[in-house]
Specification:
Helix content: under 10%
Number of helices: 0
Shape: elongated
Strand order of the largest sheet: 2-1-3
Strand content: 15-25%
Number of strands: 3
Distance between the termini: 37 Å
Largest sheet: 3 strands, antiparallel
Length: 76
Amino acid sequence: MPIYEYICEDCQTHFEKIVFNKQQEIACPKCAGKRNAIQLSVFSAANGSANGASTKSSGGFSGGGSGCCGGGCACH
């Protein structure tokens, strides 16, 4: 069940709605308007660390290089 973001074309309210099927009628929670445009959502994946920084190692490379794997470009 995806959660979609909408904007009401009547009152410009932004809201989210769980959509059970594509035929479900979506109504604005503020004005009950049926003219709603789906918005492009930005999402993120949780990585399990408290501060949002990745806790994975850099694939066995050590050193402070700024290459594609943190230590050079021999990752391929």
